[in-house]
Design goal:
- By secondary structure, the chain is of the alpha/beta class.
- The protein contains two helices and five strands.
- The strands form two sheets. The protein has a three-stranded parallel β-sheet with strand order 1-3-2, with helices on one face. Strands 4-5 form a two-stranded antiparallel ribbon.
- The longest helix is centred in the first third of the chain and has 9 residues.
């Protein structure tokens, strides 16, 4: 596995800025690290979004449902 930078996002805006700069999002339950070990994925940076409050599940105006990235099964 190649060397990569790792950071914990403190805010949603910070996570978005990191992703815009090329980082990939990482949170619990992802298989991204397994894919990195196999050489399928090779990001130069990861930003942990697991500490952000992204668990909300809300109804949308058009009758749909928005499931936050941190919502658990």
């Amino acid at each position: 596995m190649k060397t990569f930078a790792f950071e914990h996002a403190d805010t949603v805006d910070g996570a978005v800025r990191s992703a815009a700069a090329g980082a990939r999002y990482y949170a619990g339950g992802t298989n991204l690290l397994d894919l990195m070990k196999l050489g399928v994925e090779n990001p130069t940076a990861l930003v942990d979004i697991g500490r952000l409050d992204l668990r909300a599940i809300t109804a949308t105006e058009d009758g749909g449902v928005l499931v936050g990235a941190g919502a658990t099964n």
